[in-house]
Design a protein that fits this description.
Blueprint lengths: L1 E7 L4 E7 L5 E7 L15 E2 L1 H16 L9 E8 L5 E3 L9 E2 L7 H11 L1 H7 L8 H11 L1 H6 L2 E3 L1 H10 L6 H6 L3 E2 L4 E2 L1 H7 L21 H7 L7 E6 H8 L8 E5 L3 E7 L11 E4 L10 E7 L3 H11 L6 H9 L9 E4 L15 E4 L8 H25 L6 E5 L7 H11 L2 E5 L3 H13 L5 H4 L5 E5 L3 H22 L2
Parallel strand pairs: 1-5, 5-11, 12-18, 18-19
Antiparallel strand pairs: 1-2, 2-3, 4-7, 6-8, 9-10, 12-13, 13-15, 14-15, 16-17, 19-20
Helix pairs in contact: 2-4, 10-15, 11-13, 12-13, 13-14
């Protein structure tokens, strides 16, 4: 018996086929082999073609189904993880009307700001728990004003995972978690936010029916089965944004538990058992995968846009001769803690929520031509990312989050010993690394939603912990001195 998980990222689409009994991924693959294109026709814009997601999902599905001994009829459920906050608009026939405005697109910031002021900060925070900011509802407001012909033809607004589920099942639907990340869910009223809809002038009919996050969401249609090689009727039983899904992948369900990831963007995500929010909306509160009105489970999300994408940029531009990230990390480690006075503010991938939705860009400070070399820049870049995590974690701590232990997958920047050490030392947290990823987590989520597992505890009983990183007392003071320098520079840059 197998479970199939998809992870629809902004860099690639991954599929994982998991043996339900052992929890082991028997096959996984991702496409494209080079990062998917993000179109930016203007500064601060970021778009992708949803058809490209589907094309790469088809390739990944074919790859895992080609594994010897695999029969698609043995797949008992499908789960979907997806890049959060994107906007996909479809017409009455399900055709996409324009490229998706994805998570790191900044154009909607003014629309969200006006909505926050128009509805009222107190009312927004007490009902939808966030400023509309740069999220999906604000992106739709941009389309309504700037592309009225597109808006008038729109039948449904979908998040990226909703679009993939629609292609699989032939039915448009969404979840409470999806609506909450789009700033369309009223937690106080346990329903659609009439105030957000009313402020923007959106028709309720644009919002598709709501299905459970963990539970029946539809079944693979005959058309999708023929295209993908799956069995028609296979149930889709789970979908969640990539960060709630990352938390699920790491068995983070309960208040006080914390997950992190450091892919294209960097995230720390902790679970609260009661409604809470940051008054400045610098970190955001969404419905977690197991949230109900009777038993609240809210995910507090700290997002740093410029994480893995910045590390990739640094490699291309400062170490093009490094044949791997292992080599990049080795070069960075030639510099001591604090990078001999070099400091990097790593914000160069759109408006940053922890900075009040400012788009400050990335900046490099403290270069001395007689002292510094590229190893200092490489190290300062990784340290700067770790320091941006610490900066946001302080905001989360102010909301009552306990951040003593952080769980993360052994992937992306958590593969870097330098980054792990810097984050642990500067935050004081112990980091636990696990052998999992978003696609495998989505497969286990599908198993929970389909009743293959009777509980999350059963689903994650086989989750393998592979390493533990604790703060190094010999280096902690030096990291914190470097962090103090970093925060002083950030304050000068932003006026905070």
């Amino acid at each position: 018996m197998y479970l199939l998980g998809y992870d629809i990222g902004s860099s690639s689409v991954k599929a994982a086929l998991v043996d339900a009994a052992t929890g082991r991924a028997v096959a996984s693959d991702f496409f494209p082999k080079r990062e998917m294109e993000i179109t930016a026709d203007r500064p601060g814009w970021a778009e992708q073609d949803p058809q490209v997601w589907w094309d790469n999902l088809r390739l990944a599905t074919a790859s895992v189904l080609a594994t010897p001994g695999i029969d698609a009829r043995d797949i008992k459920a499908i789960g979907i993880s997806y890049q959060m906050h994107g906007l996909v608009l479809t017409d009455r026939n399900g055709a996409v009307l324009r490229p998706s405005i994805i998570w790191c697109d900044s154009r909607a910031v003014p629309y969200g700001r006006r909505a926050f002021e128009g509805i009222g900060a107190s009312r927004c925070l007490s009902t939808v728990l966030n400023s509309p900011g740069n999220f999906t509802a604000a992106k739709l407001a941009w389309v309504r004003e700037n592309e009225p012909n597109v808006y008038e033809r729109a039948d449904k607004l979908l998040l990226p995972g909703d679009y993939i589920a629609m292609r699989l099942t032939g039915e448009a639907a969404t979840t409470v978690g999806g609506l909450s990340e789009g700033i369309l869910w009223d937690f106080a009223g346990d329903g659609l936010s009439e105030e957000v809809l009313g402020h923007f002038g959106f028709d309720r009919s644009l919002v598709p029916p709501v299905v459970p996050t963990l539970g029946p969401q539809g079944a693979v249609s005959a058309a999708a089965a023929a295209e993908l090689g799956l069995a028609a009727g296979t149930p889709v039983t789970y979908r969640a944004g990539d960060q709630p899904n990352n938390a699920l992948s790491l068995n983070v369900f309960n208040p006080g538990e914390v997950a992190s990831t450091a892919g294209t963007s960097g995230v720390v995500y902790g679970v609260l058992g009661e409604v809470g929010y940051d008054e400045l909306s610098r970190v955001n509160t969404f419905a977690h995968v197991n949230h109900t009105a009777a038993s609240p489970r809210l995910g507090v999300l700290l997002c740093i846009n410029g994480t893995g994408i910045f590390n990739s940029w640094v490699r291309r531009n400062f170490a093009p001769d490094a044949e791997s990230y292992d080599e990049l990390n080795r070069l960075a480690s030639l510099s001591p803690v604090g990078a001999r006075g070099v400091t990097v503010i790593p914000f160069g991938n759109g408006a940053e929520r922890i900075l009040g939705n400012r788009d400050t860009g990335c900046s490099l400070h403290g270069i001395n031509f007689n002292i510094n070399d590229r190893s200092d820049v490489l190290r300062a870049s990784q340290e700067g990312i770790a320091y941006s995590f610490r900066y946001g974690m302080d905001i989360m701590a102010g909301m009552g989050m306990r951040l003593g232990v952080i769980r993360a997958g052994h992937a992306n920047m958590f593969l870097s010993p330098l980054f792990r050490e810097a984050l642990s030392c500067v935050s004081g947290a112990t980091i636990e690394l696990y052998d999992t990823d978003g696609a495998a987590g989505a497969a286990r989520g599908a198993g929970i939603g389909a009743g293959v597992y009777c509980s999350p505890a059963e689903a994650f009983a086989t989750l393998e912990k592979i390493a533990v990183v604790t703060p190094d007392p010999a280096k902690t003071d030096r990291y914190r001195e470097a962090y103090d320098r970093w925060t002083e520079i950030l304050a000068r840059e932003t006026g905070n």
